[in-house]
Design brief:
- The protein is an all-alpha fold and 713 residues long.
- Among the domains are: 230 residues, no CATH class; 247 residues, no CATH class.
- The protein contains 35 helices and 2 strands.
- A two-stranded antiparallel sheet has the order 1-2.
Length: 713
Amino acid sequence: MALSVTGHAEMLLGAEMLLGAAMLSVATNVRVLIILSLSLQAFLILFARLRKEGTGRKRPFIRWLIWLAYLLSDKVAAHTMVLIFSSKRITSTSTGLPTDILLFWASFLFLHVGGPDSITSYAQEDNELWKRRLLWLLLHLFLPLNAFSNSFSKNKLRLPTILVLFAGITKCAERNFALYRASFAHLGMYWGSFNVNMKDKEKEGETVDDERKMGTGSRIPVQFQGVEDPESRLGTAVQLFGNLKRALVGPLLTKPEQKIIRGRFLKIKSSKEALRVLKIELSLLYELLHTKLPVIDTKSGICLRMATYGCILLALVLFSLAKRHYQLGEFDMLLTYGLLVGALALDFLSITLLFKHSDWLAISHFQRSNGKVFDRQDRWSNEVSQLNVITYHVKDMPVWLIMNKLDDIRDLRALVKDIKGIHCQSFQNLDCKHWRFIYYDLKRFPKNTDIEEVWLGRGDEIRERVLELEQWEMIKKLDYTKCLLVWHIATEICYQNDEQYEPKHGRTDYRKFCKLLSDYMFYLAMMQHTMMATVLDNWNTVFRKTLKRIRSEVCRSCSNEKMACEDILDMKKGEEDTLFSAVQLARGFKQQKNHYPWKEMSLVWVELMYYAAINCRPNIHAKQPSRGGELLTLVWLLMNHMGLGTKYYTTLGDVLKRGDSDSDSDSHSDSDNPGDSYGTVPSYGTVPSYGTVPSYGTVPSYGTVPSSNVFVN
C-alpha cells in the first residue's frame, strides 16, 4: 500500500515536471517566433525593393532570401497564433504567461500578416489567389476573436488589444484589396465596363474625343491625373502607362488609337529619354501589381493609415499605464515594448523608403521635381544577362564531366541545365549606343507602316548586298529555333576570330553589340523558358543534339572559348545539322571582302529579338519587373508604343477592313538623330499568326542600312 502511494506521488511529481517543462518550452517558443516574425517584417521592408532594381538577378541569393522571408512571414505568424491559443490556459505558475499578454501579442501578428507596404505579392500568381487569402484571414481571425470574447470582462489590456487588433485587421484588408486590384481579372473587368460606358455616352449624343475613347484619363490612376505638363518625360510616362495596362489586359487598339499613342511617344526627343520613360512605366507596373501603393495612396487609404498609426501609438500609451497590474519579467516587458515601438518604427521606415524609391508616390506628390526625382538609378539596372553555348561546354570542364553524366538521367536534365546555366551566367551593361540602335531601328518604320509589314520580308536585299553565301538556301530553310542556335554559334565563332575589330571613335561597337544580343537570346532560350515558349519549338532536343556534337568536335584540352571555336571552325564536313550550318555561316562571313559584317549581323539579331518580344505573352512580360526587368520586356513595350504590337489587330482580315491611309504625325525632331534618313522601307508581306513560328532562317528585309552617323554621341 505504501509502495503504491509512493508510486502515485512520483507519477504526480513527474507529470508536474513535464507540465512545467512544456509551459517553459511553449513560452520560449512564442517569444522566439514573435521576434522572428518582427525580424522578417523588417527584412522585407528594407530589401523587398531590390527585386525591382535588378540586384536579385545579379545576386540570386538575395532574391532567394526575399522569397524565403515572404513565405515565412505568413507561416510564422500563423504558427505563432496556433501556439498562443493552444497555450492560453497555462497561466497558473511562474513559467506561464498571462492570457492578457498572450492576446496582446497575438494582435500584433495580424499587423505582420498585413505585411509591409513594399511587397504584397511575390509573383503575379499570388494576386490571382486573393480569394483564398481572404478565406485564410477570416479563419485565422476567428481564433483571437473567440479567445478575446471569452476573457473580455477580465482582460485589463482589452483596450490596447482592440486598438492593435483594429490596426492589424486594417492592414490585412489593405493587402487583400491590393491583391484584388492587381489581379488580371479585375483589370480586365475594368476595361469591359469602360468600353460600355463610352458607347453609351456616344449613343446619348455626348461628344467623346479620341483621348476619352481610349480611356486615357480614366485608366490613369486618380493620383496621377494632376500632372501639369503632359509633354514632359513625367507626363509622357503617365499617359503611356494607361497603354501599358491596356496591352496587358485590355481590348485591341483601333488604328486611330494606335496613331494617338505612337504620335505621343514619338514626341520624346531622344532614345535616352525614351528609355527613361519606359523604365518609369515598368516601375509603375511593379508598384501596381506588387505593392500596396494603389490602395494606400488615396484619400481613404491615407485616412486609414493615419488611424492605424494613431491606434498603435495610443496602445503604447495605454500599455504603459496598465503595466503595473502585471508582474512581467524584464524580457517580456522589453518584448512587448519592442512590438509596439517596432510597429511604429517599421511603419515610419516603410513610408520613408517608399517616398525615396517609389515612382508612384513621386508622381502623385512631387510632380514638379521632374529632373531630380526621375533621374535616379534605382529602376532597371541596365544589366543584360549573358549565357553562351561554348562557355556552357568549356567552363570548368573537369567538374562538368560529372554533371554531364547526370545530364544523361532524364529526370535530372532540367536541374543540371539550371545549375550549369546559373554557374556560367554573366552580366553586361547595355550601352547607350546599343539602345539607340534598337530605338532608331524601330522608329525608322514610317508613319503609314501597318503591323503586317513589320513581320514580313525574306531578307533578299541584305542577302544580295552583304550575305552572298552559297549556303544561304540551307540556312533559309531553318525554323526559328534552329536559326537562333545557328546564328548564336556563328556569332561566337566570328567574335572569337575577329579580335582586331576596333570601332571608329564615337561609333557603335557592333561586334560587342552582336555578342551581347547573341548571348542574351541564348540565355532567354536556356533560362527563361516561359518568355520564349511561343517561338521555340523543340528547343531541348535541338540544343542537346548540338551540345553533343560540340563535345565530339572540341578537344577536352581546350581551356577557353577561343580554342573551342577554332576546333569547331576546323571541323570537317559531316552531317548537315545545326552546328555544321553555323560553321558554314561563320566561314561565309570570314570570306567577305570587308571581313565580318557586324552591323548587318546586328540587324539580324535585333529582328530575332523583336519577334521573340512581340510573341511573348503579355502576362509573362508583366512578371519581369518583379524579377529585376528584362531587355526583352523593354523592347516589347517600345514596340507597343511604336504601334508595332501584335495586340493591335486580331487577324489580317481586320487590318484590311480597317484600311486607312491617314497619316501619322511622325515628323518630330530628335536631339540624337539630326537629319538622318533611313532610306527605302521594305515591303514585308503577311503577318504570322500569334504563337506560330515562321521560317526564320531568313534575314529580315531592312531596306537601306542606316548611315553610321546616326549612332554618334
